[in-house]
Amino acid sequence: MLHISSIFLLTLSVCSIRAEVDASESYVSRDHTLARPYSNIGKLWDFLGHTMITNNYVRLTPDLQSKSGAIWNTSPVMTKNWEVHVTFKVHGKGTELFGDGFALWYAQERMIEGPVFGSKDYFSGLAIILDTYSNHNGPHNHQHPFLSAMVNNGTMSYDHDRDGTHTQLAGCEVRFRNVNFDTHISIRYENEILSVSTDLENRNEWKNCFVVQNVELPTGYYFGASATTGDLSDNHDILAIKFYDLDKNISAEEIKKRTSIVPNAKTFEPPREHVDDIKPSMSNLKIFFILLVGTLASIAVAIFGYSWYKERNARKRFY
Q1: Would you state the pLDDT for residue 192?
Q2: Which residues contact 242 (CB under 8 A, 6 or more apart)?
Q3: What does the alpha-carbon distance between residue 315 and residue 288 come to, in Å, rounded to a whole number?
Q4: Biggest alpha carbon–alpha carbon distance for the chain
Q5: What is the value of pTM for the model shown?
Q6: Domain 17-265 classification at class level
Q7: What integer pLDDT is reported at residue 98 of this predicted model?
Q8: How far apart, in whole angstroms, are the C-alpha atoms of residue 71 and residue 51?
Q9: Are the C-beta atoms of 186 and 71 separated by less than 8 Å?
Q10: Phi/psi at 318 (nearest 5 deg)?
């Protein structure tokens, strides 16, 4: 009898888990989801730049220099609370040097090319940046690749020379290049709390990157992804984007009211002015080469002068 009861409880537990999964799946929004074979591109998603669409991935940039591309959802997000799961791969021939990375967007304007990982600077909204190359001339307190967030009201510029550290909301080190399995990132926005997690080790579990409270984001913005390469390059591939609607008992009036919110983060550190790096003094090697060139030039002038003087005296003796 006890054995039968145990089986019953186990079965009930499994059914409960299955019900939770089914309930979660029921909140997936098809309007903001991108999945193989990407049949809704051209309808619910637009692309630009060097983006290439295949049946297995959306390649924002190839592993070639000076390329950029983007993909943007055509439907504005009229949801207060949401979660997005993005499956991606970044890979290329480079082993020591590679770049530049890609960004995931929740932004007011879409389909605008620009200098911030292939998209618009001075944007309004949220950017989740996965930066694979350090442009900073001075020392960082972290390694690359690095995942960071930036909330912008349209007045701030992303400082590439500082890898965005002056306008960074939060971040963490990540390792996702050239792995032989899919990598994932989760972006959750609920009750004005922004949390970002990753699954980069093929363990099928989320690892927390950061959680920031008091982040205000409006409704009516668009999801997108963009990437760029410069002198260094990588393949930046988006495999899937899955959007979850987390709203419960949210009225249409409240959703509409939130369209007027200006993006901000109350715990955000005020941006600092860009200050150019102090130019280092000449290295000993450079000084050596300058002295060497000067010495050789002096010897050449002396030899020329001596030859000219000798030839002139010889002519005098001849006459």
Answers
A1: 96
A2: 28, 33, 35, 84, 85, 86
A3: 41
A4: 136
A5: 0.76
A6: mainly beta
A7: 83
A8: 8
A9: no
A10: -65, -45
Contact yes or no for 68/227 (Cβ under 8 A): yes
Q: Which two tokens stand for residue 235?
A: 């393949």
Provide the token pair at 56. 């297995």
- Residue 309 has a pLDDT of 64
As a whole number of angstroms, the distance between CA 203 and CA 120 comes to 35
Paired tokens of 132: 């694979």
Q: What torsion do the CA atoms of 41, 44, 46, 51 make, to the nearest 10 degrees?
A: -40
Instruction: For 25-100, list the strands marked E by DSSP.
Output: 45-49, 52-53, 58-61, 68-73, 82-91
Contacts for 291 with CB less than 8 Å, ≥ 6 apart: none
Can you say whether the dihedral through the CA atoms of 107, 111, 113, 118 is positive or negative?
positive
**Residue 291 exposure: Cα atoms within 13 Å on the Cβ side:** 7
Tell me the pLDDT tens digit for each residue of 217-237. Answer: 999 999 999 999 999 999 999
Beta strands in the chain, from DSSP E residues, in sequence order? 45-49, 52-53, 58-61, 68-73, 82-91, 101-107, 124-131, 146-153, 170-173, 183-190, 193-199, 207-212, 215-216, 222-228, 235-245, 264-265
Structural domain spans, the chain: 17-265, 281-314
Separation of alpha carbons 201 and 181, rounded Å:
8
